[in-house]
Amino acid sequence: MNNTGKRWLMIMISGILLAMILPATALANSAEPPSLVILVKNPTDDLTIELVSNENRPEAVARRVAWEGYYAFYSRDMKADDQHTFKVTTKGESFECTLDAPLKGYNHVYTLDLANQTLTAGKYPLRSALLVSIRLLLTLMLEGILFWLFRFREKKSWLVFLAINLMTQGALNLWLNHGGPLMPNYLIFSLIFGEIFVFAAEMLAFPIFIKEQKKRRVLIYTFTANLVSLIAGGYIISVLPV
């Protein structure tokens, strides 16, 4: 492929990655997600959160994944203009937290700091960077093992492998970590959709920039690596926070 063809290929790949990174809003008929999720790092087994500003005093639906706890309240329990106060009980002691602002929109994420007994909007610091780094590192390790098993040994081939995967898998994981409800089922659908773009970009790029093996072998590796990555990604999402 001449230089012009390579430039057009890079433009196509950049366009695909840009489309994955840019936020988008989609509407569909589906199960209603939580209107409020409270994140808790390393929650105790007996921790409960109760919405005491509602006369029915509903208790959060709790779910734990790895080091995080998710405490969800649904829209039937929450009203946008109301003041929301929660009672947190753990280790036989209780305290109350009130949201600092009325709820606006559909999905909301707050973080509960048990040590300081505070409830703040958004996710805790460095959470996104940590999860993106873990998923990206695991993906690179898995695909790197396959790359070695397919007998790619040249330094240039490995540099191309790292460069392409850092762009495609990095963009995919940043996109997965952007917005949306904190629910694995939703993220798996996003993973499948995103992997289609990664597959297309890598099937185009790897045969062009890796010359160590025949093009057919490179394509077989790329297909195998993306298939394994998709399966492993689904498993990682099920065992790590989303």
Summed up, what is this model?
By secondary structure, the chain is α+β, with helices and mostly antiparallel strands. It is built from five helices and eight strands; from the N terminus they run αββββββββαααα.
3D architecture notes:
This protein is α+β, with helices and mostly antiparallel strands and 242 residues long. It folds into two domains: 138 residues, no CATH class; 86 residues, Immunoglobulin-like. Helices cover 48% and strands 17% of the residues. It contains five helices and eight strands; from the N terminus they run αββββββββαααα. Helix 1 runs parallel beside helix 3 and helix 3 runs antiparallel to helix 4. The radius of gyration is 22 Å and the shape is elongated. About 6% of the residues have low confidence.
Note the overall shape.
Answer: elongated
How many helical elements?
5
Could you estimate the helical fraction of the residues in percent? 40-55%
Structural class: alpha+beta
Low-confidence stretches: 18-31
Largest sheet: 5 strands, mixed
Number of strands: 8
Spell out the helices and strands N to C: HEEEEEEEEHHHH
Q: Work out the count of structural domains.
A: 2
Record the strand order, biggest sheet.
3-4-1-7-8
Residue share in β-strands: 15-25%
Radius of gyration: 22 Å
The overall average pLDDT, rounded, is: 83
Distance between the termini: 41 Å
